[in-house]
Prior knowledge:
Layout: E1 4-7, E2 12-15, H1 19-22, H2 25-52, E3 54-56, E4 59-64, H3 67-74, H4 76-109, H5 115-141
Amino acid sequence: MSSVGEVAGxxxxxxxxxxxxxxGGVLGILFAPVTLLLVLFLAPMLIMVQMSVLRFxxxxxxxxxxEHYGEALTNELNRTIAINTTFIATVAMxxxxxxxxxxxxxxxxxAGKRELLILLALVLADELAPVVKIYAWQVILGREGTG
Length: 147
């Protein structure tokens, strides 16, 4: 990395104090995100894995076992739920792709001035979904919150 650079093409030179070249480099840039990943994601995941193999969670006094996994994988209800979930997710993904790919093609190559309007409609639809869910739950639960 050069320590001298030209400013705005005016022929003037100035010193560029590049942080990357002096201290830390790539490791300095990656330290904060990697630390956050370890603390906020990987540590809770490891705790959850440990809790899943405890005989009597959260106490470690009962020892470790894989019985819970065997029961979850052999239970007929869990198998039915997994199959139904996979089917619904596949159908939803296929429907989204059938809409999204032609829409993306249209927006990139054909939309012209309508591109901003289409993008606004997509963003509004995405942002309004939680509001619609809130009103739906209010209708389902009624005024007293019990249905």
